[in-house]
Structure formats: C-alpha cells, structure tokens
Amino acid sequence: MTTSGDEAAAIRALTDNFVKAFNAGNIDAIMRNYIWDESLVVFDVVPRKQYLGPDAYRAAWADMFSHLKGNAQMEVADQDITVDGTVAFGHCFMHVTGTDTQSQVVNRWVRVTNGYRKIAGNWLIVLEHISVPVDFSTGKLVPIQRP
User: Fold this and answer.
1) Dihedral angle at the C-alpha atoms of 20, 22, 26, 28, nearest 10 degrees?
2) Beta bridge partner(s), residue 117
3) Are 98 and 71 in contact (CB under 8 A)?
4) For residue 47, what is the DSSP state?
5) 54-73 pLDDT, tens per residue?
6) From CA 83, how far away is CA 54, in angstroms rounded?
7) Dmax of the chain from CA atoms?
8) Interacting residues of 124 by C-beta distance below 8 A, sequence separation 6+
9) Global pTM value
10) 10: closest CA among 112, 105, 124, 109?
C-alpha cells in the first residue's frame, strides 16, 4: 500500500527526471514524463498557444532548443503536490537560464501548474499550464523574482 506522501514523492521524482532531461537537452527523455496519447494538453507561454498531443509538444521542444546555444539549465522551486488516488495536481516555479543563438542571456522564471494521472503504475503529466504574470495596464510581462 502506498500513501499520498509516497505518491507525492514519486511525482517529485518525475519532476527531477524532467529537469535532468531538460538540462541534458534530451527531448526523448523530456517526453517520457508526459502521457503518450492525444489526451495531452499543454498551454505554453511561447508562442502563446495550446499543444494537443505529444507530437505537437515534442515539436515545440525541438523548436525551443534550436534557439539556444548549448544546453539551457533549469531549476524548480516551491513545488507543491496534491494527490487523490490516481489523479494529482501540482504547481511550482521553474527557472531557466542559458544563452540564445544571438548570444543573449536567457534568465526566466515561469509558473507551472501540472495535472497528473497514474497510469500502469507510473505518474505522467496529462495537463500542463505555463504562465508569467502580465501588467494589464502596460501589456508587459512582469518578471518573477526568485521565490
């Protein structure tokens, strides 16, 4: 028998695997953290669109990495997870650093909310929403400070 604490730890391990895959620039390993069928839904900040299914999201990762020199790095802060049976949700901040192909420094914090399902004994991301706050009076993004 597992407890919700054990299940939350398994989801944290999934997040750790995701971060390791991202830091290595390994798209195949990144995608192993997501559900493999067309039920995957991702709302991303760039290019401000919805991705449906793993093929569309894999292409988005390939495009993102094509705009970077070397491997970008990611860290996760303030992850919180709630588990109820075979469904869970969580939220955290993710910090991405690196250099783009124009030699500009990338240093971004984003807010991430994930929905998870436990399928065949493994937790997978089935819904992901990535966001940054916007100042509606100026229409500009508000930088997220380190939590």
Assistant:
1) 90
2) 87, 124
3) yes
4) S
5) 999 999 999 999 999 989 99
6) 24
7) 52
8) 14, 33, 34, 35, 36, 116, 117, 118
9) 0.90
10) 124
